[in-house]
Amino acid sequence: MASSSESSYHASVSGLTRRAGGSSNRTVPSPVRPDVDPPPRPRLGMQKLAVIAIVALGCLQLFLSPTHFRDPKDPHRSWIPIDPTRSAPISKYPTSDQQSSREANQEVEVPGIHIFSWTDCLNLPMLAVLTNSTLSSSRYPEDVFFHFFIPPEEDDKLSYYKLKVILPNSNLEIVGQKNIKERLELPNLEGDSLQTYLDEVAPLVVPKFHLSLSKYVYVSPDTIIKGQIEELFGTDLGPYAIGAAEDCQKRLGEFLNIEVLNAIQRTAAKSWVSDKPYDKDACMLDFNVVLVDPRKFDDTFTEAVLWWTKVLNLESARGNHIRLAMALTLYEKYQKLPPSWKLETSITDEKKVIEFDGPRAECRHHRTEQQSSPNGDVWEQYLPSKSVAILTH
How confident is residue 349, by pLDDT bands cut at 50, 70 and 90? Predict the structure, then answer.
């Protein structure tokens, strides 16, 4: 018994001794270093130099007047120069007081591209094609706004809802002509002459009183826009109030006796009469697409159109006598638009404006150009048959 317990004791001691000896041969681990090194010691005098720089910049802000500022409403945080001649700096993000003041003075610029159209014969499919064709060709359709002036006997609200069902994402406004006519100083005309005057002159001058805009586009309702409206809207009008394409298939001498016209030019002392003789080969203007800057629009425009109508007795002249009077009023006083923006009846790759080739509405007042237009299938690209059923119902 004694010998067996003594042998087990020696075995356990020897095992402990071997484990102790094995652990003594292991490598001692190096001390743990922190992940972040201690900050470097600043050079002598750098702290004093930093304090001096901060004090110097503070003195500059105290003694030098500011030249720029940042508007807190501007998401881009752009630097805006301060005008020393004004009591308050100019900002493109006006305050609520400034906004209300500008609205009271009707000086608030409405953003976007605004297209106006005036019709004496309501044809909703035609207006839908004009809208959809313009938006389909536009780079930024969400920035395009349409303002349609329809005859006073039509329901403007019903027309608006029908068009919005077909074109839910479009920016539309339908305005009855009755309210507009009450704001215009109409000449002493009656019957068809008054209606023609309204159809031709009012679309150019009404937007000036309807919205505060620096530029807008008038488009005839029977038009399909194939070009980008942004390209037209970006045209620089220079010193002129109106930009239009020329129709050189029609010459001034074809409609007027040029000798009588130049006799008036030599004797009449009116601001709207040309300083030099009129050219019988001068191209007529295409008033189907017109770019207008109302800030440069002469207030005597309507008076001049009426004056030319009476002086030359244009009511008996061939063609649209109001457009002829407008062409004389704007003689060499317009910016020439590219020929591609002239209204055409046939479609080509170069043309950006073509005439509506769909069915016409039957109305009492109707222009000759609309009646003689042939039917085609271009308009169907912008208006499905189901939409036609909704608009004509």
Answer: low
